[in-house]
Automatic annotation (TrEMBL):
One of its GO terms (biological process) is purine nucleobase metabolic process. It comes from Phlebotomus papatasi. Binds 3 Mg(2+) ions per subunit. PANTHER family: ADENOSINE KINASE. This is Adenosine kinase. InterPro entries: Adenokinase (IPR001805), PfkB_dom (IPR011611), Ribokinase-like (IPR029056). Residues 37-304 form the Carbohydrate kinase PfkB domain. The keyword NAD does not apply. One of its GO terms (molecular function) is ATP binding. Its cofactor is Mg(2+). The lineage of its organism: Eukaryota, Metazoa, Ecdysozoa, Arthropoda, Hexapoda. It catalyses: adenosine + ATP = AMP + ADP + H(+).
């Protein structure tokens, strides 16, 4: 749910910062939602999400037909609304985004998403899913479900490509060992500068270079790390045969920015779209940038053509 606001009053009332990204109790989130809806009724938009679902939706809109999303919803009004939105356009977890100029404050409650169980995946029906070229784990999935991540690494890591998104500083800070494991296990690692800086700090590294060098030394896998930084250059780090290669790829400025929520999710969708077509890592990043630039001209995580 996205709401465009014209001042900081609601955010200040609930002690939220301009670019906060955090989980809060459902009661508090509903109170913020009620206040914002009453005051800014005309700017309210309901959008299906969050992170990996955004990526799947954008990837499907780009023309990739073979996309499967695994998650869970609650038996409540938000669950019904999400299922309806998904079916039409291609307590349940809720994310509220307060859009204040170029800033966006994201507050969420994970709800039923915590309830996904390993037994749902470890069935014969899931064996066909394991043939996928890429299996994408969002960082928000890791808390309380790390055992499922470990199972996925064991089940899929030898045959398919595993991808992880760091997603949020507060998750990385609280799950240092879990993310160190996933960094070693995954083939594709995505995050923004803030998230990677947090990972480097909590893991005891002195710099990005020392972090990447140690990853290269400790793994037998080739890897690609992608670090986004808004309108600043994207860092593309390739580890191949333990050799590290770093490139910076420029990002062209977008003048008519409406909402940067989900820009990272859209970037990953563009990257995947090129990657599964065997494009070079540089071309994959370029496609990711192109797709993200198009989505930030919309409210919510959409391509312009998805609104038609």
């Amino acid at each position: 749910m996205s709401i465009a606001v014209d001042d900081e009053s609601i955010r200040m009332k609930y002690n939220l910062k301009a670019n906060d990204q955090l989980e809060i109790p459902i009661e508090t989130l509903m109170a913020v939602k009620k206040d914002a809806e009453e005051r800014y009724q005309k700017t309210v938009q309901f959008n299906p999400g969050g992170s990996s679902l955004n990526t799947c939706r954008i990837l499907r809109a780009l023309g990739e037909e073979n996309v499967l999303f695994c998650g869970s919803v609650g038996k409540d009004v938000n669950g019904e609304k999400l299922l309806k939105l998904i079916q039409e356009r291609c307590s349940t977890a809720v994310c509220l985004c307060l859009i204040e100029g170029s800033n966006r404050c994201l507050i969420a409650n994970i709800g039923a998403a915590f309830r996904i169980e390993l037994s749902w995946l470890s069935s014969e029906a899931f064996d066909e899913v394991c043939l996928a070229r890429i299996f994408y784990i969002e960082g928000y999935f890791v808390p309380e479900r790390f055992h499922i991540c470990q199972w996925l690494v064991e089940k899929i890591g030898k045959t398919g490509k595993l991808a992880i998104n760091l997603n949020a500083k507060y998750i990385v800070e609280s799950l240092k060992e879990e993310f160190k494991f996933l960094l070693k296990a995954c083939d594709l690692i995505f995050g923004n500068t803030s998230e990677f800086s947090t990972l480097i700090k909590v893991s005891g590294y002195t710099s990005l270079t020392s972090c990447v060098d140690l990853i290269a030394k400790d793994t037998d896998k080739d890897k690609i790390l992608v670090i986004t930084d808004g309108e600043h250059p994207v860092k593309l780090i390739e580890i191949k045969n333990k050799v590290v290669k770093l490139q910076e790829i420029q990002v062209e400025k977008v003048d008519n920015v409406q909402d940067t929520t989900g820009a990272g999710d859209a970037f990953v969708a563009g990257f995947f779209f090129a990657y599964i077509r065997d494009r070079s890592p540089w071309e994959c990043v370029q496609e990711g940038i192109s797709v993200a630039r198009r989505t930030i001209t919309q409210i919510g995580c959409y391509l312009p053509e998805m609104r038609k």
